[in-house]
Amino acid sequence: MPTLDNPENAAFVEAFKAKTGRIPSEYAVQGYDSARALVEKVKSGATDRAALAAALPKVAFTGPRGELRIDPATNNVVQPIHVYENVAGPDGLTQKVLATLPAEADPVNGCEMPVATN
């Protein structure tokens, strides 16, 4: 979301525009967060499937959308939720942030992620 006002987002938007020639969408930042989570798991020393799965709940970083962590009970992302509307901007559609809701973990629903065996 190019309109979020924080240093991490400003750096992300600048790098994305330099590489692609366009502003990033909300999907681009979701892709960034996913890749960054994988990088953080590998940086922790995880080298195989089981170690990557074990490292997932320990992932936490500040990304373009704010503080991000993985809930160990659900393996879901926990980060602020930005409510926005799409509006016309100088480079095409962009987002106008209407509200930011605090990060909140989803309730555990009884599902468990299977542990990888290899």
Strand order of the main beta sheet, please?
A: 1-2-3
Please provide the count of β strands.
Answer: 5
CATH class of the domain at 7-79: Alpha Beta
Helix content: 25-40%
C-alpha end-to-end distance: 37 Å
What fraction of residues sit in β-strands? 25-35%
Written as H for each helix and E for each strand, in order along the chain, the element string is HHHEEEEE
Radius of gyration: 16 Å
Averaging pLDDT over every residue, what do you get? 88
Report the major sheet: 3 strands, antiparallel
**Protein structure class:** alpha+beta
Total of DSSP H or I helical runs spanning 4+ residues: 3
In the CATH hierarchy, what is the architecture of the domain at 7-79 at level 2?
3-Layer(aba) Sandwich
Oligomeric state, counting identical vs distinct chains: single chain
CATH superfamily of the domain at 7-79: Response regulator
* Unreliable segments of 5+ consecutive residues: none
Broad shape: globular
CATH topology of the domain at 7-79: Rossmann fold
In a few lines, what is going on in this structure?
The chain has three helices and five strands; from the N terminus they run αααβββββ.
